[in-house]
Each structure stands twice: as structure tokens, then as C-alpha cells.
Amino acid sequence: MIDLIKMTDVKVGKVKGQALWLQQGFQIDQYLISTESDQTNMPAWADCYCSWGIGGSGRAVYFNGLSVKGAGKTPFANENAGTYGTGLLSLKDAVIEALYLEMLYRLFGRGIRVKGFALLEKSVPTHPAFFELSPERKAQALAKPEFEFADNAALLVRDFPLRISHLNQINYEQAPTFLGYEPSVDRYSMIEDLVKRTLASVATLWARRISIGGSPIDNFDVAGQIFDTGSMSVKPDFRNTSASSMGVAFWDELLEAGNQAATVLLQRAAPWKSTADYSTGYQRIQSQVESWAKQARERASLQIIGLSEAEIQSLYAKKPVETAAFTEKWVEWLKTGTELLDFGVSRDDFYFSQEYGWRDRIPLIGNDFRAMALELAKGKSSDETLAALWSPLFAVLKKSQAREKACAAMNRDVSAELRGAPEVMTMLRKLQQSGQLNQSSVTELIESRLAIFNESIGYKA
Predict the structure, then answer these.
(1) Which of 205, 282, 338, 430 is least surrounded, with the fewest CB atoms within 10 Å of its CB?
(2) DSSP letters spanning 233-254
(3) For the chain, which residues make up each domain, given as ranges?
(4) Whole-angstrom Cα distance, residue 58 to residue 110?
């Protein structure tokens, strides 16, 4: 499929770097490259996807079958885009991307995977205020990274992502092939399938209180799974807050992702023959996205109770009406009391910052979903309405200690360990400042976080 994507030639050369984290058996040396090397004599390519005001990959290149991120500026780099415009990747972002993409891979059993990342012999500005400093202060901040303004630069190697937004550069006739369908597929059925896949993946993340941070559809692959994790975070509960500059609240992320996926697919892969045909087709798909999103969330809500995929399928097959009635009420119960409260602090600062100490001041936003989910896993509920709706469904499932165990593990609060900040970043900064930044210490940092996530999803290598 990669040969269908529009690529721009670039030249790269070798650079020095120190491996910090690697998948077993991966050799990163051949991927230590940059467009700004002293000798750029090797071919590489920057992919074009022309969406959301972005021409394409501005700091990543396709090289030897993989994507190398932080490899210097490409022709798509926007020098007015802060850190992104430098062509570099910060060490903090490399750690978070490796951690979160591996989490997603283990959760879904597929997806874009980081092969490894290395420390480069340079620094990268990470704060908008850096670009307002005097030349002298900029040099000083970069010489030995002042973490208020800058960070060590890193180079990350991952699977090359086939983006939904690559459709912007692909011929209409080739769209099904690129998306993994037969050329003769019914286009409406294909679009519906892809939008539903996108919704299902985001709904699963929602059920585990993992926010995608309002990430745009550019950051989703053709299987409907997110792969750019810079704005992702793990929440302690279902609080309806926004954690990114995109300004999309947690409970709105699902519908936003579905609408964006539908828009790109309708524009680039639908069978339009006239303006009237466009209007009819657009209405046919777009009018259903909200309903599909609701169904995806309600289906995913059963995961919170610890149900396996086989059990969920069984309920919908044997008791479709009763299951729909229960999940609708269950989702309504989960959302109760989770609206953003105004404490005079923007977005998630109040909830996620050490400065505001949210754990001491507000330990839980909304209903106690952990206790209720465990009750349901055991076949009961202290809520009369939920109990009445759940009883006929539980009779189909029967009692299961495995379900109870999965429910308890899934609903454990791992937000402090996995949300990306401040704990992970605090540990990383200590390694940087103490001179103990090496492959052993960084590997231990990432693997210790993954062990916590493995336990919550029941993952075994």
C-alpha cells in the first residue's frame, strides 16, 4: 500500500546516537540518520497527506521500511510550528510515544509499534516561550537543556503509519485497495465499516479512561486506530475534561473522531457522480455517525464490568433489546456528575497538576463506577434501575471469578503511573539531571509502566 502514497525524496546521512529503549532483537544503528547530517548521501522519503493545514511529515522520513521520527526537517516542515518546525523530537515525547503505542499494541493486539529510540547529541526547544528568548539565552538553554525551555533530542523508529488522511493524495479508484478492501467493494459499506472501526477503537479507550486528547483524524491509521500519542492521557475516572489544545472534552472525543473519519472518507473514497449525488451520499453516512458512536460507547461500556468479547457478543445475540436497554442506562449512570467543574483553572490543570493536588481535594468525579462495576460483575447492583435491567442479562452470563478479576484490574486507578505527567516525567528528569540516562535506566522506566498496564488488561507476552 505504501507505493500508493505520494512521497517526496529527501537525502539523509548518519548521525551519532545512544540507544535508550529497543524492542527485543531490534538494531537501531542503521536508523541513526538525519536530513541535517554532515553527509546526506542516502535516499529517504517524506510522505504527503495534505490535511488540517499540514502538508505532510515535517520531521519523519520513510527509510529502510520504517518511519524515523526526529530525523530533521523535511520539505513539509513548518518553521513557524514551534518544536515541530525544528525537525526534532524531544526525549520526553519519545518516551511517551514508546510507552503509549506499546500500550495500544498490547490492548488491541495490532497497530503501529515503536521499534526503539535513541538519544541524540543535541537539544530541542519544547516551550513556546523559548522562541521569544534572546539569541544568547536560546544558546544557553540548549547547551545544557533547561527543562523549562528545552529537552534532549531523540530519534524514534516505528512502523510506518498508513494514515486515513493519506487518501487525500490517492486516486479515487485506488482507495479501496489502499484501505484493504477489494476494488469492487460497495463504497458506502466500506465507509461505514471504517467509521465503525474508528469508533470501536476510541470507545474501547474511553472505557479504560484513556483520552486521545482530541487528536485529529490525521493521527489514525487505516484500521481506525490512533498512533500519534502526544496528546493522550490516562484519567482517574470519567471526568468530562479536555486535556489538549484541540479543546475536545473527553466524552466528546468519540463522536469527534467518527465525524472526522466520515468526512475524509466521504470526500476521498465515496462514489460521487454529481453534486446531487454528493448531497444524498453525505447525508446517508453523516446522519448515522452519532447513532454509531452511541452504539460503540454502549457496547464498550460492558468492558468496564469485565466482560470478555465473547460474552459481549453472546449478550447481543441472545438478548439484543435487553442489552441495549441496560447499556444505555449504564452509560447514563457513568456520566452522571462528571461534567467539568469551574475552579478558575483551565482544562485539566486542576485535576492533573501536582500544584493543585487533586487527589487530596477531589478523589473522584462522578459516581463510584469501580464499586458499581464490581457489583455488576458479581450479578447485583445497589441501583434499583440497573439491577432490574442487569438481572436477565446476568442470567445468560452466569457467575465468573475471571470476570470479577478482570473488572477489578481494569478499573484500578493507574492514571498517576500512566498518564504521562507528572510521575513519568519526574522520573525521566531525575535520570537526566543525575547523569544516569542510559539504556538500562530508561528501559526500566518504560517496562515498569508497561507492567502496570499489562496487569490492568490481563496481558501476557
Answers:
(1) 430
(2) EE-SS--B---STT---GGGHH
(3) 2-158, 182-421
(4) 26
